Amino acid sequence: xxxxxxxxxxxxxxxxxxxxxxxxxxxxxxxxxxxxxxxxxxxxxxxxxxxxxxxxxxxxxxxxxxxxxxxxxxxxxxxxxxxxxxxxxxxxxxxxxxxxxxxxxxxxxxxxxxxxxxxxxxxxxxxxxxxxxxxxxxxxxxxxxxxxxx
Length: 150
Hints:
Blueprint: H1 2-14, E1 21-24, E2 29-31, E3 34-36, E4 41-44, H2 46-50, H3 93-110, E5 111-115, E6 140-144
Membrane topology: Peripheral membrane protein
Cofactor: heme
């Protein structure tokens, strides 16, 4: 389940459900020379951070190894936030991760997913504002395993 967890996190990094996270500034402060005043809306560009080579080398490459326990120090704090962070992070984060892992573990025990001739490789995405949308269908074939994995 460790590698499955890493795969889900990498998929979330590549195509997060939110492009940005908005927060309301509550006190006057300066960050990196930029002044912020109470009442200002601050938008954190999550998609930009998740695809920045400064934070994630080879950002367009699917590399679940980034999120394995032995590599956890390579992910800088507050650069991977698909569910937000802190006290206002998504309340359903843990439930969503458990559901995704359970579904994928049950599915992948019984079938192997293969690309079809119609599968677009690499998958291309349309320019977006909020949600990632593929530039065409993603076709996969579910092939039954002869014996389910345990």
